[in-house]
Amino acid sequence: SIVDYIPVIQMNASIVARIDCLRSFAVAAIENNYCRPVPDDSKRIDIKEGRHPVIEKQLPAGESYVPNDIFLDDEEQQIIILTGPNMSGKSALLRQTALITLMAQCGCYVPAASAHIGVVDKIFTRVGASDNISLGESTFMVEMTETASILNNLSDRSLILLDEIGRGTSTYDGISIAWAIVEYLHECRMRPKTLFATHYHELNEMETSFRRVRNYNVSIMESENRIIFLRKLKRGGSEHSFGIHVARMAGVPVSVVKRAEEILSELEQSHEKQELTRPVDDFINKREGLQLSFFQLDDPVLRQIRDEIMETDINNLTPVEALNKLYNIQRLLRK
């Protein structure tokens, strides 16, 4: 009866599965130039030229992943405050650190030049934004619930990754919560290793008051009112998030982007003087109308269409000529 052979079959299946897993580790390591990690009993994570194992495989042909170093311990550099523009790669850096740590403890080679990984018992993450409509929980409530779970369950060997904590509420509330969380993680006796990505540049001030907090930023280069993402981690905090630049890249109408730049300039001047140079009511009274001008869009095709419309003598236009004009405009838009 086959029942008599079930234990043997199960044992063979387990052995084959283990061989398959280990072979997959070996193939991935050879094909992707992974290195052998060095796990130990220390409380430090020291990764040289670490890469994200998924993102580096999805890059366009000819483009290489920009590697970065990460060092965390419980004595000198327990908490890294990571700032930088949107889309610069902060979240990818958090995720690759967690993946390299996890892969090392699975017995797999890792995407890095070298990696010394002190044993980690828990990896906590608060990354991304989502709500829970079925339970009546807002995005911010979900964020705080998950953060509370992290703070109540951490250990001295935990790795904590926090991405933009506090963004779901008002600016001052968010800064206060983020600051208090970093302070708590620094002062608690367990000293968990932490990567904290944020757009609250006020948190850069913590380095001067808290011995194991360090500021880093993901570098960019500005060129002719454009930003180029260098994806390289460097020491020191960042002063700007370049959100308006990203809005322009995403295709937000030019009139909206220009208006945002005007308002940003006014707010920055007000912040420097600690008062509003122009009242908020003035912003509202001079706001961009909801009906955006068709001719404000900086697009060669739209300019060509504008010129053709402006040159048309509507009073003497026959129905056939009008149809021909519409056909020409439609042809331009389909190019």
Protein model, in words:
This protein is of the alpha/beta class and 335 residues long. The chain has 4 domains: 1-31; 33-241, Rossmann fold, CATH 3.40.50; 252-285; 299-333. Helices cover 40% and strands 18% of the residues. It has helices at residues 6-31, 90-106, 139-153, 171-187, 243-250, 254-273, 280-285, 300-310, 319-333; strands at residues 38-40, 45-50, 68-72, 79-83, 114-118, 122-126, 158-163, 193-197, 213-223, 226-235. The strands form 2 sheets. Strands 6-7-8-4-9-10 form a 6-stranded mixed sheet, with helices on both faces. A 4-stranded mixed sheet has the order 1-5-2-3, covered by helices on one side. Mean pLDDT is 84; it is low at 287-296.
Mean pLDDT: 84
Q: How would you characterize the largest beta sheet? A: 6 strands, mixed
Helix content: 40-55%
CATH class of the largest domain: Alpha Beta
- Overall geometry comes to extended
| Unreliable runs | 287-296
- Give helix and strand order, one letter per element, not per position: HEEEEHEEHEHEEEHHHHH
Remind me, CATH topology of the largest domain?
Rossmann fold
Number of helices: 9
The CATH architecture assignment of the largest domain turns out to be 3-Layer(aba) Sandwich
Q: Ends: how far apart?
A: 71 Å
What is the C-alpha radius of gyration, as a whole number of Å?
27 Å
- The tally of strands reads 10
